[in-house]
TrEMBL record:
GO biological process, one term: gluconeogenesis
Organism: Candidatus Microsaccharimonas sossegonensis
Classification via InterPro entries: Phosphoglycerate_kinase, Phosphoglycerate_kinase_N, Phosphoglycerate_kinase_sf
GO molecular function: ADP binding; ATP binding; phosphoglycerate kinase activity
Pathway: Carbohydrate degradation; glycolysis; pyruvate from D-glyceraldehyde 3-phosphate: step 2/5
A family per Pfam: PGK
Protein's cellular compartments: Cytoplasm
UniProt protein name: Phosphoglycerate kinase
Length: 407
């Protein structure tokens, strides 16, 4: 089953000016420096392919959500990092349209790489403004547009949609890999497929949970999301973070699960049997693993409990595919990262199980845990919202707008 869009391999791209949309929306530390470069590294195969084919490469991206030209969100430091990773000079231009862009590209030769300044310095970017897209096309003189910013293809912006109306547009290798890995696991998984959902809110992820009810063999729920499930089941959750307005959603989820597995619902959707609580969310807070019936009114459930961790590890041991989205606890604090860390360890030590990890915070967590660019896992997605929407089965505007592959 091939990808349904044309990619850079399918078009005579050699020696042309090629405009590449990357998602270099990298996390920044408190000093404003790049704290993780997965998104830059993930885009390298596409750039190397174009480089080897003699293209003049022009890369565009956004960074953060700036209000106008805020220097905190300049892509200049990304150009420096990219240059190291490509082992090739990357020219940075402090604008993404206009004469300086045109002149720089004109002067550059085959194999050159130019990175343009943050697209979101212009409000026209998020407005999907066609005149702005035309201006990018004209300023760069690009012959092809390559979409490789997987993390942003759920947005219909000038650089993901309007631009495709101006230049013949194909997919890059990262976009193709993300799409094939995620949709492949959702549509034709090696079974058993265990879906693990955690993180902050059910309301962010309803469509994905509902899809997993249909496609997964087990669904494991952790994180603050589990608090909401447990409260729905009548457990007193003390001072834990939860959503009390999700009764209709949970009714729907349990109804669909019941249709699928009958009385096995509570072995199909696995909720924590114990939780790790603290009296406050603070680095010095100590973890207490407690049964569900002993949660006190001022307890905050911040992680899955120790028995639950063992149960999850045992369930995952039988899986052939695991899709994980959402940390299983308040993983920013090590005391409450036990659940997520034990799950990461289980996945890393059973390489025969395909492990697909999506979600901004979950990816950040496993990358720090692994400290090796996520190599311990089959696939760490570069997309947050985009990977969730793809898992939910939505069509993504930044993919739809590319040229169709011939049937
Ligand atoms: P992702 O970005 O991977 O999709 P989310 O944004 O949904 O994940 O959730 C991650 C956030 O959920 C983290 O900030 C984490 O601290 C928070 N979280 C997880 N479990 C809990 C909990 N029990 N109580 C409070 N916050 C939690
Ligand atoms: C992301 O980090 O999810 C993408 O880069 C999109 O960024 P946005 O949520 O600001 O549109
Ligand atoms: Mg998040």
């Amino acid at each position: 089953m091939g990808f349904f869009k044309l990619t850079i391999r399918d078009v005579p791209i050699d020696n042309h000016i090629v405009l590449v949309r990357a998602d270099y929306n990298v996390p920044l530390d408190k000093d404003g420096k790049i704290s993780d470069d997965l998104r830059i590294k993930a885009n390298l195969p596409t750039l190397k392919y174009l480089h080897d084919h003699g293209c003049k490469i022009v890369v565009i991206s956004h960074l953060g959500r700036p209000e106008g030209r805020d220097p905190k969100y300049s892509l200049e430091q990304v150009a420096v990092r990219l240059s190291k990773l490509m082992d090739h000079h990357v020219e940075f231009v402090d604008d993404c349209i206009g004469d300086r862009v045109t002149q720089t590209i004109k002067k550059s030769g085959a194999h050159s790489i130019t990175l343009l300044e943050n697209l979101r310095y212009y409000k026209e970017e998020e407005a999907d403004d066609e005149a702005f897209a035309k201006n990018i096309a004209k300023s760069t003189g690009a012959r092809y547009f390559v979409q490789d910013g997987f993390g942003v293809v759920h947005r219909a912006h000038a650089s993901t949609h309007a631009i495709t109306l101006c230049i013949p547009s194909v997919a890059g290798l990262l976009l193709e890999r993300e799409y094939e890995t995620i949709t492949g696991a959702m549509q034709h998984p090696q079974r058993p497929l265990v879906a693990i959902m955690g993180g902050a809110k059910i309301s962010d992820k309803i469509a994905v949970i509902e899809r997993f009810v249909h496609v997964a063999d087990n669904i494991i729920i952790g994180g603050a999301m589990a608090n909401t499930f447990l409260a729905y089941k009548g457990v007193e959750m003390g001072a834990s973070m939860l959503e009390s307005d999700q009764t209709d959603t949970l009714d729907r989820i349990y109804h669909a699960a019941h249709e699928k597995v009958g009385d096995e619902v509570d072995t199909f959707i696995i909720l924590p049997q114990d939780v790790a609580v603290a009296k406050e969310i603070a680095p010095k807070a100590t973890r207490r693993s407690v049964g569900l019936e002993t949660i006190e009114s001022d307890d905050i459930a911040l992680d899955i409990g120790d028995r639950t961790i063992e149960h999850i590890v045992a369930t995952v041991a039988k899986a052939k595919t695991v899709i994980w989205n959402g940390t299983l606890g308040y993983a920013e604090l090590p005391e409450f990262a036990h659940g997520s860390a034990r799950l990461a360890l289980a996945l890393a030590t059973q390489p025969q199980t395909a492990s697909i990890i999506g979600g901004g915070d979950t990816a950040d967590f496993v990358l720090k845990w692994d400290n090796n660019g996520g190599k311990s896992f089959t696939h760490v997605s570069t997309g947050g919202g985009a990977s969730l929407e793809l898992m939910a089965g939505d069509t993504l505007p930044g993919i739809e707008s590319l040229l169709d592959a011939r049937k």
